[in-house]
Amino acid sequence: MKQKLADNLARIKDEIAEACLRRNRQPSDVTLIAVTKSVEVDTIRMLLDLGQEDLGESRVQDLTHRNAMIRETINRRRELGGSNPDEVIHEPRWHMVGHLQRNKVKQMLPITAIVHSIDSLRLAEEVNTCAARLGLNEKVPILLQVNTSQERQKYGLAVGAVGALAEQIETLPNLYIAGFMTMGPLTEDKEVSRFCFARLREIFEELKGERVVGDDCKHLSMGMSQDFVQAVEEGATLVRIGSALFEY
Ligand SMILES: *Cc1c(COP(=O)(O)O)cnc(C)c1O
Q1: Residue 235, CA atoms < 13 Å, CB-side half-sphere
Q2: Cβ burial, residue 68 (10 Å; 0-12/13-18/19+)
Q3: What is the pLDDT of residues 104-158, one digit of tens each?
Q4: Nearest in space to 63 (alpha carbons), one of 126, 136, 114, 8
Q5: Mutate to test the pocket of ligand 1, among 148, 224, 227, 229 (most ligand atoms within 8 A of CB)
Q6: Which one, of 138, 139, 143, lies nearest residue 123 by Cα?
Q7: Which residue has the higher pLDDT, 188 or 234?
Q8: Distance, CA of 71 to CA of 25 (rounded, Å)
Q9: How far apart are CA 231 and CA 201, in angstroms?
Q10: Residue 154 in contact with residue 165, Cβ under 8 Å?
Q11: Strand partners, 146
């Protein structure tokens, strides 16, 4: 099973690299996030052993639980350390990719590298307040989730609302907008997904041009198992992949 996982990981990275080449991008500019919401903790351990450190979860409860289990493994291995000095212990970098409730922010923040799913001012304000209370000494990187397909999804900002919200959020002292996130529509037609990804990139470029967001705003989190190739071609820097990685 570990071999199959390694093969899937290598194949997906190859496809990302090929999509980069077609658009004169550097493969190192795209980070693969393994979305582990559907798998066992053992599989997460295997991913880490394979060097896959960027991991995504969509529920805070899963995130905290899994992080605790993984930390336990890491601590145990550190204690046993010395038996194999060549062993590299990989630390997870957790991405919160799913819809977030305000009452879960406090638990999530201390273990999360990037919050991908900010879609209201109230939620951003909660992140801002919790970051202060927790005494985090770095600003929290957040992504604004945009509903580029304007259908199906309950979550994400309307395209027309992003600019005004971004301006308000940028005034909060304890977080910064590190980029934007979107989900492609539920469709077999990958060109429809491509259109949504291109739309997100336009929003990003527009707000950068108007200096609503700063130089540290550089991420486009878009593309999942079905449509990550199109997303990378349209400029994704973070792709969130679950099922394609775990099919055996
Ligand atoms: C589950 C999930 C993914 C991964 O989806 P796959 O189709 O399994 O690759 C990516 N992003 C979000 C927000 C998710 O909830």
Answers
A1: 18
A2: exposed
A3: 999 999 999 999 999 999 999 999 999 999 999 899 999 999 999 987 667 899 9
A4: 114
A5: 224
A6: 143
A7: 234
A8: 35
A9: 10
A10: no
A11: 157
Helices of type H across 114-217: 121-134, 162-169, 190-209
pTM for the model stands at: 0.96
Q: How far apart are CA 244 and CA 32, in angstroms?
A: 12
Please provide the distance, in angstroms rounded to a whole number, between the alpha carbons at the two ends of the chain: 8
- In angstroms, the Cα distances linking 81 to 7, 53, 77, 78, 88 are 28, 20, 6, 5, 10
DSSP state of 120: S
Radius of gyration of the chain measured on its C-alpha atoms: 18
Six-digit token string for 108: 């999530």
Ligand 1 neighbours by CB, cut-off 6 Å: 35, 37, 58, 97-98, 183, 224-225, 240-244
Q: Which of 228, 235, 168, 175 is nearest to 202 (CA)?
A: 235
219 forms bridges with which residues in the sheet?
179
How are the residues of the chain apportioned to helix, strand and coil, as percentages rounded to the nearest 5? 50, 15, 35
Q: What whole-number distance in Å separates Cα of residue 30 and Cα of residue 196?
A: 18
